[in-house]
Structures are given as structure tokens and as C-alpha cells.
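Course assignment 3, question 2. Fill in each field.
Student: A.L.
Task: Predict the tertiary structure for the chain below.
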Amino acid sequence: MARRTSAGAGVERFNDYANSLRTKYNKKGSKQGSSKNVRGHRRTVAGLSMVNQDADSSYYTTLTIGTPSQTPTFDATKSSSLVVSSQSTDIQYGSGEVLGELVEDVVTLGSFTIQKQVFLAVVELTSGLLDGTVSGLLGLAWPSIAATQSTPLWQALTNNNHLDSPEFSFYMTRFNDDVNANTEEPGGIFTLGGTNSTLFSGDIEFLDMPVNTPTFWLLQISAITVQGSKVAITTGTSALAAIDTGTTLIGGPSGDIAAIWAAVPGSQTVPFMSGFYSFPCTTDVTVTISFGGTAWPINTSDINIGQLSATSTQCVGAIFDLGAGSNIDEGSGNPNWVIGDTFL
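Answer field:
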């Protein structure tokens, strides 16, 4: 994950986050979990409260596992409903690795329960992979990239008619521009089974994913504007973008990112942060991204991730060169763009 840091931390730490994101999308599968033998339930929609961690660095919600139910940390030895397989595996994420064994147990998320959800019970993990009170990761992409070769929880709920509509949506709070923000703040709402019309205005733009076999949630970027003017970007499969709630920033191919920042007066590369650009802190950088017919604006506060230093008049931009220092190949199935919470 590429993450914002808490108040007072240096912006150079975003360089490490960007490298983690490059690693994540250079792999063919950073993978997830599954389910089977699900009991039928009345279709419904649920809004789950989230927590905003470290000024928009990450967002999390709570689920329970096992019998009796446990949260936030799961102890496999204390669940009477746990079924342990003989298969162990590891999962590579952009910012670390976990090792464990495949198990199945009761998992409850909000008002939804899966009786036999397959997941990885972790016994070892990279230091720093999880922050604060977070004790696990819940994948929301597709089973084709699941290291466990199983069905993700969200799709199990859809397949078994638990959801009122085969949709989920996010309303995320912003604290990156609040110098008084606490380590944990109200994070918004994760809606399963539909949308919450009280949390947005305007119309929803529905778009088909431009791939036959879904992996990540992919859309094709059709246009970008900067400071009110259209910027020329590569098109076709080179414009495929992963829409990733687990990523903070926006990453894209070298030429396109250079074109974006060339449209901002006073911008320059950051020598000690590979692929990043800075701009005058007095400038409001206005950017829109289109995937269909609608030009979606990015809040100028989200474009600015902080000063280069306490005395600098330059601020670092949240749109960076995803290809800098990586060996991602076009046409390899990996998206050239990753659209994270800066946009979302």
C-alpha cells in the first residue's frame, strides 16, 4: 500500500510507499480468500462504520471470526468451528509478506455471516505490514488473483443472494489537511449491497470493465485535465487503471505523469523521491480524470501531500510515476495506472 504518514512525518517516506505499490502491481497475483456451503439469508444492504487511520493513511472496519466470535485479533485455538487444512501458503503484498495455513470458519461482517469462509490464518508477517489496531486484510478484488484459490467474501455474499444489489461502495472522510487530527478518526461508511444516497450528490456513472477475466477492478482512463486544460495521455490498454481503495496515492506511466506535471507552473522532480514531483505550495493543482463521459475532479487538498521540508516553499504531489524504478511490462496484464484514495 502507498500510505500517507501521520502529522509531522517527512514526505520522503512516501518514496517507500510508492516502491511498495510498484511491487504490488508488478506481481500476477496478490491474492485473497473464499467461501462455500453458505446458508441462505434475506437479501439486505448494510452500512459499516470505518476508522480513518493516520490522516487518511488507511481505513478499516471490524469483522468477527470463529465460535465464539472474536475481534480484533483471531486466535485459532479458541474457535470450536475452525477447520484447518494441511495447506500452508504465503501471500506477497506491496508492503510485505504473510505466511500461514488455510482454514475455514464462521466470518461475520456487519449483518452478514458466511458459515465456512476460507482464509489464511497468519503465523508470520513482515514487521510494519499492519498499523495500529489493524489485525488483518480483507481482499475486495476477484478470485482469479486469490493466492488461496478461493472465493472472496464479497463475492460469496453476492453468489448466495445475501446482498440487496451486487454492489459495494465507500464514503471516506478526509483528515490529511487537519493538523489537529488524531491517530484514529471517524472514517466514513463502507456500504455492502448497494449505495447510500445520503452520502453523495449527482448521478452514478456505471461503466463496464474492459477485460474478459476480471482480476483487479479495472477501468480505462479516457481523459485527464490539469489546471483546466486537457493533457495528452496514452490510450488503449496502456490507459488501464486499477481502482484500489487500499492505495493512498495515484500512480501512472512515466510519460503521462511527466505531461501532467508539465502543465503545472513551477513543478519539478524530487531528487530523493523516485517518480515524485513537487510544485509551489501556493498553487492549487486542479485535476480531473475521466473513465467515460464524466470528468471527475480531485480535491486540491488531496493532491498536496505536504511540504518537501519545514522551510520549503515546494509541496509534493500525490500523483507519481508508477514505472520509475520498476520493470512493469505493458501488456503483461498489470495496469499502468493505480487510482487510490487521492481520487476516491
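Instructor remarks: Confidence is low (pLDDT under 50) at residues 1-8, 27-41, 327-331. The longest strand covers residues 96-109.
Grade: pending
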